[in-house]
Amino acid sequence: MQAARLHEYTDDMTEGLSIDEVDRPEVTGASDVIVEVEGAGWCQTDNHIIEGMWEEYVPQDLPMTLGHENAGTVVETGEDVDIVSEGDPVICHPVQTCGTCRPCRLGETMYCENDAFNGLTTDGGFADYLHTSERSVIPLPAGVEPVDIAPHADAGITAYHAAKKAVAELNPGDHAVVIGVGGLGHIGLQCLDAMSAARITAVDVKESALGLADRYGADHLVNPTEDDVPSEIEGITDGKGAAQVLDFVGEDVTTAYAPDVTAAGGDHHVIGYGGHVHEPAQALVNGEFSFVGNIVGRYAELQELVALVEQGDVDLHTSRYALGEVNEVAEKLEHGEIDGRAVITP
To answer: Per-residue pLDDT tens for 228-250?
Structure first.
């Protein structure tokens, strides 16, 4: 089969991955599931993996097939698999967990001590077939196509995970700010709109992204290239600030907004990454706000997100590309030329 594989770290996205002929994965364990990939979302994290940003955090044996947002059709299962059968359409949580370590027993599966992460620590879905496990697959509802939902396997549940935490702290009349209405942000905005009564302000430098935000329920739109973000938020919130800020950019300039736009006792959720948090300790003490980190959502949260999709509360804005166009996609994303999410169709 064909697979898009990383052989060495590079900053040159035009030559990041190569299309290789590799063996098709096979069932080797009783709980294994082999999926024929129909859609695999491209993520900013894929660019970061190519650049080598994850090397010091997780083990990566190269060459490796990338792709951690996968959906498709089950073609083979291990003898103990019960929840899916051959021919079933599924979405695949990117993390294969053991189920027996203490974090798994506590339901914190993203902290599994024996995990394998498709496209990050083991082969992913930029290929014709994917090797995963029963603990990672979720059957799709009737009418939901794998290629249409694939990015929710990571982008969706990461955005949902952050939005769910924010919603727990939002009351009617509160304000929320979504910074970056891209591949994750346009999902997070919809989750906030569906799950809370907060008024939402979207912040983005691209007019096309702000158009998406307007379409998906934002009450206010702010373009930092035209307006001063803290001043705009101050006016929109009558000087109170936003109770919850979801930062899907995570660059120095966006984390620096926190002291000026976050309400007293509020949270600035860092979901996007690549920058730093450079704030004086006194700023946090004075405003009693918090920076909150966010990782990929849990399996159960992917189930919840699929329910929102089935109900029509969350939509995906996507564009599709062939497997041979992976480097073109990486380059486009590097230059901010993709709205929503790019999906690779092997």
So the answer is: 999 999 999 999 999 999 999 99
How far from 79 is each of 27, 31, 103, CA to CA, in Å? 9, 7, 26
Mean pLDDT, range 333-337, rounded to an integer: 91
Domains of the chain: 2-154+296-345 (3.90.180.10), 157-293 (3.40.50.720)
Strand order across the beta sheet in which 242-247 lies = 220-222, 199-203, 175-179, 242-247, 262-270, 290-293
What predicted TM-score, i.e. pTM, was given to this entire model?
A: 0.92
Reply yes or no on whether the pLDDT at 114 is more than 90: yes
Angle of helix 185-195 relative to helix 207-215, nearest 10 degrees, comes to 20
Angle made by CA atoms 344, 306, 178, in degrees to the nearest 5: 80
